[in-house]
Write a structure and sequence with these properties.
The protein is globular, with a radius of gyration of 22 Å. Strand 18 (399-401) and strand 19 form a beta hairpin. With 410 residues, it is of the alpha+beta class. It has helices at residues 20-23, 43-55, 58-65, 125-130, 189-197, 203-213, 229-247, 298-301, 310-319, 340-365, 374-379; strands at 39-40, 101-104, 110-113, 137-140, 152-155, 158-159, 171-173, 175-177, 181-183, 225-226, 265-268, 277-280, 285-288, 291-294, 304-305, 308-309, 371-372, 399-401, 407-409. It is 28% helix and 14% strand. The protein has eleven helices and 19 strands. Helix 6 packs across helix 7 (229-247) and helix 7 runs antiparallel to helix 10. The strands form seven sheets. A four-stranded mixed beta sheet has the order 1-3-2-6, with helices on one face. The chain has two domains: 20-256 and 368-409, no CATH class; 265-321 and 338-365, no CATH class. The chain starts with 19 loop residues before the first helix and ends with a strand.
């Protein structure tokens, strides 16, 4: 995709700012599970769902499975890279539940997934091949008109790319190969930025700048590149702060913490079945039924992606009552009472959103000033991006189990 004029989207009317699609050219579409029961906020529910499914009689297993055109209990598929799961037909499965994996289920919501390829319509194996201890994933948030929320998230977890509103964005790994090999950047981009801003520019600093500076636009996610080194350095420093918050302690970082006196605490225990989530702005209190958490800054409560409040969406996904049609489905297998770990996760999410909201004005200050335009990138030969850079890299010498235990060399 060629870079297009962004108009005033980046605060510089008339500038030809590049798109993220050109700066990080290899991207993958969001996962498509095909059945909602393979994802859950707690790992225990997934294990219980598996046990119910594999113990069910044939006709019941077919119904619980939730057949789609892509997957039935008789579909034979390869194992997901890095996952030791069965590859025989699922209707013959009697073994133990595969270990659930932690994923990012849409922006800022860490959940669990059953990593069995037989249960997922489109699992995007190319993502699993490069998901290791060196990888970072940039996840675009689909464009929604008048959305003032962030355009991008970064995670060390495997993201499913689920969108809270609007059309889903793309998933862009920072590295094209396992082990942190071959940055997923337009060929020549690093050299150009080093010539402008110094040899300290790395793919990690490009990711940090991108996280801080990315903007929504109708044409796609726009990433203005500064010509001024002082502004580049300030943006990279800010981006590293944002990255630390998004990662929540992953990759050896510190877990986010608000300063003393501002940290949220449980003032009244969350009830077993909290009926509603409300916010008292006067006292800075988050109410979960009779449960009370404070102090909760307004910035955390109002934090939105795609126009959707993240705290409300997080709560809804954990408490929405199962409809009558689904009461005997696998989605109904869930905790009967609010688990303590959800309260801990909620406290951390409040902290992350509050700190991100505090940094938002600094992100807005990055707009403006002279830029390295898409025209300059074209003149330097960085754009247009060659077609191979938009495709997955080959993974050689890596054995993956195919259907019914056969192995393939990729």
């Amino acid at each position: 995709m060629a870079a297009r004029a962004a108009g005033g989207s980046d605060g510089v009317p008339g500038e030809d700012a590049p798109l993220l699609d050109d700066l990080m050219p290899w991207s993958v579409r969001p996962l498509r599970t095909g059945r909602s029961w393979v994802v859950a906020p707690d790992a225990g529910s997934l294990e219980a769902r598996w046990e119910r499914l594999v113990r069910a009689p044939d006709a019941e297993r077919e119904r619980l499975f939730r057949v789609t055109r892509s997957r039935t209990p008789r579909t034979a598929v390869a194992a997901l890279p890095g996952q030791a799961t069965g590859t025989g037909r699922f209707d013959r499965e009697t073994g133990p539940c595969p270990r659930p994996v932690r994923i990012l289920h849409g922006p800022f919501d860490e959940q669990w997934l059953l990593p069995d390829h037989r249960l997922i319509d489109a699992a995007r194996p190319e993502l699993w091949r490069v998901a290791d201890g060196h990888q970072f994933f940039a996840v675009e948030h689909g464009y929604v008109p008048r959305d003032t929320g962030p355009a991008l998230s970064v995670t060390a977890l495997l993201p499913d790319g689920h969108s809270s509103a609007g059309r889903p964005g793309r998933i862009r790994p920072l590295y094209r190969r396992p082990g942190g090999g071959e940055p997923n950047l337009a060929p020549g981009l690093l050299a150009l930025l080093r010539a402008r801003h110094g040899e300290a520019v790395t793919e990690r600093s490009v990711l940090a700048w991108t996280l801080a500076a990315a903007r929504h636009s109708p044409a796609g996610c726009v990433v203005p590149l500064p010509a001024d080194t002082a502004r580049w350095s300030a943006g990279v420093e800010l981006g590293r702060e944002l990255l630390r918050l998004h990662l929540r302690g992953a990759r050896g970082g510190e877990r986010p913490r608000l300063p003393g006196g501002h940290r949220p605490y449980v003032r009244a225990t969350v009830p077993p079945v909290p009926a509603a989530l409300e916010y008292d702005p006067a006292d800075g209190v988050l109410l979960l039924g009779t449960g009370r958490i404070s102090p909760v800054p307004a910035g955390a409560w109002e934090f939105r992606v795609g126009g959707v409040r993240m705290l409300e969406l997080w709560f809804e996904r954990r408490t929405t009552a199962v409809g009558a049609a689904d009461m005997d489905g696998l989605e109904a297998v869930r905790p009967r009472a609010w688990p303590q770990e959800w309260t801990s996760e909620l406290l951390e999410l409040i902290t992350v959103l509050a700190l991100l909201a505090e940094l938002r004005p600094r992100q807005e200050d990055l707009a403006g000033g002279p830029q390295i335009t898409a025209g300059e990138l074209r003149a330097a030969g960085v754009l247009p991006v060659p077609a191979p850079a938009r495709r997955p890299a080959s993974v050689l010498g890596h054995r993956e189990e195919g259907p019914d235990g056969q192995f393939a060399l990729l």
